[in-house]
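Need the bound structure for D-mannonic acid, inputs here:
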Amino acid sequence: MKITDVDVIVTCPGRNFVTVRITTDQGLTGVGDATLNGRELAVVSYLREHLAPLLIGRDPLRVDDTWHYLYRGAYWRRGPVTMTSIAGVDTALWDIKGKVAGLPVYQLLGGRSRDAVTVYGHASGATVEEAVADAAGYLERGYRAVRVQSAIPGLDSTYGIGGVATAAAHAYEPADSAIPTENVWDTEAYLDHVPQLFAAVRRELGPLPRLLHDVHHRLTPNEAARLGKELEPYHLTWMEDPVPAEMQDGYRHLRAHTTTPIATGEVFSSIYDCELLIRERLIDYIRTTVVHAGGITHLRRIFDLAALYDVRSGSHGATDLSPVCLAAALHVDTAIPNFGLQEYMPHTPETDEVFPHSYRFEDGMLHVGEAPGLGVDIDLEKAAQYPYQPASLPVNRLRDGTMFHW
Ligand code: CS2
Ligand code: MG
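Answer from helper R.:
Posting the output first, comments after.
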């Protein structure tokens, strides 16, 4: 069998997505997500100009060899653009391999380690009361775990705040303008508010619901230690991305000062970004996912390393990761021994139409399909109806204008 075509498809049903579609000489096709929010066209160029020509004529079933051919062959290894491009190709090859074998991909990864995948939903609100009500709504809809974010008094906008209306419309998308929106950030206002938020959530919802919070990379290790300590009474399942991803040794200070579980990894693109944090048990959950961490081939290796140190998976699953990525992530989540939680933000109805898929949500769980391959595809006609729209993620500045972390 030989690869005859490698198409890179850009579509924007509400937000931009990049999809790799590989075709073989026997008419089989495979799809892979290669969406890098706010930098989509860099990946498109890397794929079209540099990877597609190298794949024509290759045997699509040599998945691991192709992965190393693209990774070691690049000479300039790692990094978000390279690893997202490799991920798109790798995922499409796993899809083809499943179709050739007549099996869903999780069967090729070792079979089921569980009957369904526990997900967490995104509750948020412009006020504490609204956030608590939104979280209660998720529990009523069967979710077993809820991430809670709320607006910070005194700040016009804060990460993750879409409010009930936006949540109902599945419309929260931070990359909302061609030129980055500039927000004002205030760490003290945030640190003062978040413990109050979780005090209210626990008071209203009780001790059992699994609660999560995304700090979104905005604290120093010592500020994160303070927050982690102040959140201890509320027994969070995890505090996510407390410090910028580059500050890896800062996790030692954080870990030494709080027992609040820590999750990180959504911006990591290779096992080398995760190794120290996993090996020193500085985190409890690793949030790498298929599209940004080099595809199924490399993600599986990251989770295998994590399993050695009892670190669980907590894969990123925001709506800027396409249904192709979510389907692939569910196959990995279904098979690995050290599954923790899967992030789940439902996509817009238009997006679900462009990417027909067999996974389904039921009672707080996502169920991977049994179709051969990944159980997801791209409708080329529908995709063509939604041309690319320039969109950048926001930036943060402190009150004095200093550039900060978003
Ligand atoms: C966030 C993401 O869902 C999350 O955990 O960190 O929504 C993130 O902001 C976006 O994926 C960035 O594109
Ligand atoms: Mg996050």
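Comments: Confidence is low (pLDDT under 50) at residues 163-170. The CA atoms of residues 147 and 273 lie 24 Å apart.
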